[in-house]
Amino acid sequence: MAHPNSQIRYLNPPAVEVKKKKYCRFKKVGIKYIDYKDGDFLLKFINEQGKILPRRLTGTSLKFQRKVGQAVKRARHIAILPYLADLLK
């Protein structure tokens, strides 16, 4: 058993996870309109398979998440973004 007066010493300090506060990038920058014709911007909101990323991952507010979803669907409809993709990024 360890001596009661001994101190615990670590070679490296124990890792403590600090969660970053998620924020809505649209509110921060002041974007009011999401352009569905800008495919490069919309690629930030879809994953490698072409699925729309959820709010809990992107931090987007509900209002703008709906607008992003609508813009992605419109861009898919006019063939700016693919519906299905293998390793899109």
User: What is the average of the pLDDT values?
Assistant: 87
Task: State the shape.
Answer: elongated
Instruction: Give the proportion of residues in helices.
Output: 25-40%
Q: What radius of gyration results from the CA coordinates?
A: 21 Å
Distance between the termini: 55 Å
Q: How would you name the CATH homologous superfamily of the domain at 25-77?
A: Ribosomal protein S18
Explain this structure.
The protein has a domain of 53 residues: Irregular (30s Ribosomal Protein S18), CATH 4.10.640. The protein is elongated, with a radius of gyration of 21 Å. It has 89 residues and is mainly alpha-helical. Helix content is 33%, strand content 0%.
